[in-house]
User: Fold this.
Amino acid sequence: MHDEAALDVVRADPLCAETPARLLTAPITPAASVYVRSNFALPPLDATHTIAIGGAVRSPFTMSMAELAALPQRHVTVTMECAGNGRLGMDTVPAGEPWRYGAVSTTTWSGVSLRTLLERAGLAPDVVEILGHGADAGPRDDADGDVRFARSLPIADAMHPDTIVATHMAGERLSVDHGAPMRLIVPGWYGMASVKWLARLEAITTPFTGYFQLQRYVYEVNGTVEPVRRTLVKSMITSPIDGGSCARAVLVHGWAWSGAGAIARVELAVNDAPVWIDAALGTPVSAYAWTPFEAELVLPDAATATIRSRATDTAGNAQPERIEWNRLGYGNNGIRGIAVVVTDEGR
Assistant:
């Protein structure tokens, strides 16, 4: 089981837990502190587990863990975020897991390209999505009977070489909380796309309309429903820490990420000042990992201050002042301020 002492537990059963703020300063999140999101009780799987690949394919097959391990392995370092991260920061907090801001982590996953398995199966020409079925299931208040976790991916994302069926995280076999013995990893998408406890991959010729595609993990605004997909552009200040103290002259550090493109710009502002200051961008550890930023600021001569960050990606998306509220509380990438106590030093 996961070391819960290294996590901030949001819900104990099934486990939902955040990476503590103090551990979000490193480019790679400590393995014991990678955030965990579980919808149902852990399924009883072991090393004899197999994955079935079927649907609209020429040659359906089943693959064991040993057969998967014998295929060429791929390693991807990914910043993954839960779609509900920041739900508690929304104005009128929606129902759902009370995530603060730590449901995001960066680590390296290893496994086999999903493309390798799909090419072996031979997709029919009219396939539009690949549906991943998890082995986890359970009751929901707004559904009849048990619901199994399942999410689909468009063909282009499923066939990307860095979308993988992962068996390892941070160089070790997956823990059960992280989806052992195998799970999907979909760089650039919110975490719900990276189906855990993967049991079946199904090629489908019409878009999936299951529970976790059109009833949960959706943006529901004014009666319209849109599935949650790629991670929205976002930034996070990691130093100084929210609620901590700092000198008036302070070097601010943080991370920015987006599923739509690389980070092009991060700006910082103090209190409600309309002037934004460009931060210097560092180099991410991978194309799918968060981008470091830093900037020197001189805070006002006051006892407290608020520092805000705003990221823009290469697709032109920028963080909004606040998001359009949605009923289930997903995708909160609104500009966030951290509050600090300004020490006498430098004042």
Q: What stands out?
A: The chain has two domains: 4-227, 234-342. The first strand starts at residue 8 and ends at 11. The radius of gyration is 21 Å. The mean pLDDT is 96.
